[in-house]
Amino acid sequence: MASFHPDNWSQACAHWIHEIQVVFDPPVPSEPGNGGFLRLTRLGASQWAALVALAFTLHCTRPPSTFTRPLPPPGRMPVSAPPAPFVEEGTASWYGGDGDGFAGQPTASGEPYDPDAYTCAHRTLPLGTLVEVTNLRNGEHALFRVNDRGPFARGRILDLSRKGAKVLGFLDQGVARVRIETVNPEGVPVPLDPALDQQDPYVVQVAALSDPANIAALEETLGDAFGPVSLQDAVTQRGVLVKRVRVGSYTQRGDAEKAAQQIAKLLKDRGIEPFITRRR
Predict the structure, then answer these.
(1) What pTM does this model have?
(2) Which of 136, 89, 80, 146 is nearest to 280 (CA)?
């Protein structure tokens, strides 16, 4: 071999490369089924590819999920609030004093008026309704049954019996500011009885007149615009016989209120102020 010298590097490299021999060991035959991890991976690749394709297909074809509110557990379904009792505040008066002529007279319910009973008169509460009445000045309260209609004086919401005025402490004053609330016989607040409410329709009372000519003229005016007019006999506290002129028969209070507004507009020049009450 020639001695190494920088001048003959190319010749030396060529000689070394020529002398290099790469020797591989002969292949060793392997037993079937012993391919190692790589061989197992190659064999299972097709199965894994099929599974991946199937999963991808199911995911793409699945409909989009939507949010649904979870249902409450059994026995805990949401419930609406119970109906509220009827409540009203305003001025109350009383009737049935000595010499006013009401004692023993038929009430709207048909029973004779008893000044010493726990009864009252209201314009629209169904006959037979129980109410707790509280005097807002002194806190006195008691239970009463609605058996009559009234009061018909402007600005008042309730007429108590003489007994009621005495118990609530305003017999001498004549009037008091009160709170009314519908209750059951035990005094527990309850809503209006729907059955009682539907038995007696609303009417619009236009006036209470004693002069036959005025009654006939008003009846003709109202009949042309609102249909049949009904007349009801009544006696005032002064003992005067009058006719209550009434219009309509409404199962819904809202319809009666609309009619009352129309009548008030029609008769505004006569100073008449109609109000809503019941047929009986």
Answers:
(1) 0.69
(2) 146
